[in-house]
Structure formats: C-alpha cells, structure tokens
Amino acid sequence: xxxxxxxxxxxxxxxxxxxxxxxxxxxxxxxxxxxxxxxxxxxxxxxxxxxxxxxxxxxxxxxxxxxxxxxxxxxxxxxxxxxxxxxxxxxxxxxxxxxxxxxxxxxxxxxxxxxxxxxxxxxxxxxxxxxxxxxxxxxxxxxxxxxxxxxxxxxxxxxxxxxxxxxxxxxxxxxxxxxxxxxxxxxxxxxxxxxxxx
Length: 198
Hints:
The protein is of the alpha+beta class. The chain has one helix spanning 2-45, and strands at residues 71-77, 80-83, 89-102, 108-121, 139-142, 147-148, 151-155, 163-173, 179-186, 189-197. It has two domains: 1-42; 71-197, Sandwich (Immunoglobulin-like). Helices cover 22% and strands 39% of the residues. Strands 1, 2, 3, 4, 5, 6, 7, 8, 9 and 10 form a ten-stranded antiparallel sheet that branches. The protein starts with a helix and ends with a strand.
C-alpha cells in the first residue's frame, strides 16, 4: 500500500509539470504569432506611396546669329581615287565642307574648305610599298580657273602596307570662289575627283 500511496503522491506533480510546460510552450508560440502578425499588419495599414515626380527638361536652341559663319557641304564624285604606278594607293574623300570666313567688320574674306580623307595602302606585306599622298602636291581647281594648294591639318596620308590612315586637309578659298575639282598626284600618276554643292 505504501508503494501505491507513493506513486499517487508523486504522480500528480509530474502531470502538473508537464501541463505547465505545455502551457508555457503554447503561450510562447501564441506570443510569437501575434508579434509577427502585428508587424506585417503595420505595413499593410499604411497607404501606398503614390507620389509622382515630374521632371521637365527645357532645351533652348539659340537663334542663328547674323554673324554666324555659313557652311556649305559638297558632294564628291567619284569619292575615291586609285593612285601609283602599281595602283597601291586608294584615297577616299569621306566628307567635304566649307566655312565662310569674315573679318572683324563682317566682310567676307573667303572660305576654308575641309576634306576628310581615308588613305589605304593596297600593297601586300611582302611587297612593302610605301608612299605618302601629300596635300602640297594636290591641286584644288576653282570655278574661276585658278588652282590652289592645301595643307594637312591633322592625321597622316602614309599608311603601312595593308592598312589605312585618316587625314584632314584644308584649302583657303578666295572670296566668291567655289571648288570645282581636286587633283591627286602620286608617283607620276594623276587622278581627279569633282566637287559640287549639295
């Protein structure tokens, strides 16, 4: 009998401890669920940000000044010339334009013609032909019957074999004169390309 009384006395506190442990765990889980749901609901309660930002960019185009230089674009026909006894030099005029020049009083003093060139050395690496198409050897014929020489503003016209180079040539035109034809010279050969206003 003593054994049964002993189990009876100690069995109840063990059940109560299990029950308290289960209630504590359940309370902790409920508290965590409430905390998480309250955090997520606090962001849902706020209204969505519906602010729209509008930016405007204003571009002003300056009116053409009366003293602004006049520019003229030219067509080049044909746009390429093959030079040299072995036909090793290919010169292509990629663009041509002139800008009117004026003095301090606004009086026209002529214009400057600018030519952008691409020069290709068509010789092979084995042949190793080198050349230079010089702006001082070229002649620009004008519509008034005169011819003028130019100068190389930038770049070079002496590419390596199987390579190309870029150059910019400039010619100072007298007042009331327009370019008519550009003559290239190299190694005893001569090729002309015509220029006309676009």
